[in-house]
Amino acid sequence: MTQQDLQSRKAGHIALVGAGPGARDLLTLRALERIQCADVLLYDRLVDPEIMELASPRAERIYVGKEVGRCAWPQGRIDRLIVAKARLGLRVVRLKSGDPSIFGRACEEIAAARASGIEVEIVPGITAASAAAASICHPLTERGETDTFAVTTGTCRPGDANPDRARLAHPGTSMAFYMAVERAAVVRDDLIGAGAPAECPVEIVASVSTPQERHVSTTLGALAETIAAEGIRNPAILFVRYPKSLARAIRGISAVA
Amino acid sequence: MTQQDLQSRKAGHIALVGAGPGARDLLTLRALERIQCADVLLYDRLVDPEIMELASPRAERIYVGKEVGRCAWPQGRIDRLIVAKARLGLRVVRLKSGDPSIFGRACEEIAAARASGIEVEIVPGITAASAAAASICHPLTERGETDTFAVTTGTCRPGDANPDRARLAHPGTSMAFYMAVERAAVVRDDLIGAGAPAECPVEIVASVSTPQERHVSTTLGALAETIAAEGIRNPAILFVRYPKSLARAIRGISAVA
Q1: Is B66 considered catalytic here?
Q2: Which residue, B129, B148, B178, B221, could crosslink A152 as a Cys pair with Cβ 3.0–4.6 Å?
Q3: What are the pLDDT digits (tens) for A97-129?
C-alpha cells in the first residue's frame, strides 16, 4: 500500500451506490468500481445476491434489511454504523436498490456523514421505472402523447400525508408508482376522481430485470382487480399513462353524445 | 464464428442504448457490452467521444446529429437507416444520450423496427436528472419534503402544445426541466402563476458528469436572471423543488400577516 493509499484510507469515505433494479449488468461501471473497492458493504433484501458477489472476498458484508420475525434496522442505526466504519478509515458502500436519489432515503445518510465531516457521494443507478420501460419497450415519454413523466409512491412514512395524486391526472402525463401494489385501489380512485379516464393504459412490471420478472397489461379502471387476479406482489412498478390522444378521443365521444 | 453466431447475425438486431449523461463510467455494463459488440453505431453530438472509443475499431460509425450549417438528420431517415442495416444481418446500436425512455424519441425507431419484423430492445441509461442529483448530492425525492419527482421539457415539437406546468406547482414535488434553459422565464411564470412560491430552490446543473460540469444555486423567482448572468447554456438540468416545509412556512407567514 502506498503512502497515498494509506492517506486516502485514513480519511474514510461513504458512497451511496445505486445497485439498479436487480440484474447485475444494469450496474454502472462506476458502481461496479465502488463495490469492488469497498471495505464494508451494507445491503438489504432488495439488492440482488449476484451483485454482492462482485465485492472483494475480504470485504465486510452487513445485512441491514428485515430478517424473519424481526424489523429492518432503524435508519438512525444505519447512519451511525456507516459513520463509525468510515471513521476507521474504511471505504463504506451503502448499496441502494435502484437509484439512491429516488425513494432511497439518502438524505439521512448524507446528513449523518456531513455532520461528522466524512466525504460522501451518490453513485446514480438505474431506477426501476427506467428498467421497466426498457423491458416492455415502451418509453416513459412519447412525442405528442406524454411530455411529462412522474415517479411517485403508494406508501408514505406513517404520519405523512399521502402524495396528492390529483395533480398527475392530466393529459400528457405518464406516471410510475413505486411501492403501490397494495394501494392500487386508492391510486385508481384518486386518479379517476381527479379526471383521469378509466381507459388509461397501465403496465404492471414486477421484479423487473430479475428471473422472476412479469408483465401484465391492464387499464386504470381494472387495476386493483387485475393485481388481485394475477397475484402481483411488490416489488412492482405500476406504469400508468394518460396520453393526449386518449383525452381527445374522450372529448370527441362526449361532444357527440 | 459458430453456426449459432451466424444465425443470430443473419437476423440482425437493433438496440437503443442509453449512453448516460456523458461520463464513460456512468454507462451500464449492458450498454458497454452492446457497444463493444456493435457492427454499426449511430450517434449524435450529445454522445461523449469517450464512449465512441469503446466500440470495435471495425464498427461502422454514423454521425446523425447536426453538422455546421446543416440540420440534424430527420427522424425518418434514421429510422430507415437502422432498419436497412439490421436487414443486412448487422448488430445496430443507436446511442441515445441519457436514457432512451426519457425524451429519447425511441417510439419512432421501435415502430420502424417492428414494422420490419426486426428484433429491437432498449438498454436503459442514467438520465441527466439522476446524474445531476447525484453530483450535487441532493436526492430527487426527500422523505417528508418531496414525495413526487417529475421530469418534463422546456421545448416541445413545433405545433405541439407546451407541457401543462401548472400541475407540477404543488407542495411535495421536485421537478427536473430538460431542454429548458432558453425557456426559463416561461417555466418560472407558469409555476409561479400556478401558485409555486418564488422562493422555491433551484439547482442548475450544466453539462453534468463531463469536464465542463457546472452548478449554480438560485430560486425560482431569480431563475431567468441567474441563467442570463451566469451564461448557462444547454445541456443543463433545472432542478426545481417545492418542499412541503416551504409551503407550511409560507402559510405561516400569510396567517400572521
Answers
A1: yes
A2: B148
A3: 999 999 998 999 999 999 999 999 999 999 999
The pLDDT tens digits of the residues spanning A31-64 come to 999 999 999 999 988 888 889 999 999 999 999 9
Residue A121 burial class via C-beta count within 10 angstroms: exposed 0-12, middle 13-18, buried 19 and up: middle
On chain B, the residues whose CB falls within 8 A of the CB of A172 are: 161, 163-164
Provide the edge-to-edge strand list for the sheet that holds B173-178.
A214-219, A201-206, A236-242, A173-178, A148-153, B148-153, B173-178, B236-242, B201-206, B214-219
CATH, domain B3-123, list 3.40.1010.10, 3.30.70.580, 3.40.50.720, 3.40.470.10? 3.40.1010.10
Name the closest residue on chain A to residue B26, using Cα atoms. A28
Q: Active-site residue A244, yes or no? A: no
Q: What is the ipTM of this complex?
A: 0.93
Partner-chain residue, chosen from B123, B131, B152, that has the shortest CB–CB distance to A124: B131
Return the residue of A nearest to B172 by Cα. A163
CATH superfamily of B128-252: Tetrapyrrole methylase, C-terminal domain (3.30.950.10)
- pLDDT-derived band at B1 (thresholds 50, 70, 90) equals very low
Closest Cα in chain A, distance from residue B208 (Å): 12
Residues B102, B132: contact at Cβ < 8 Å?
no
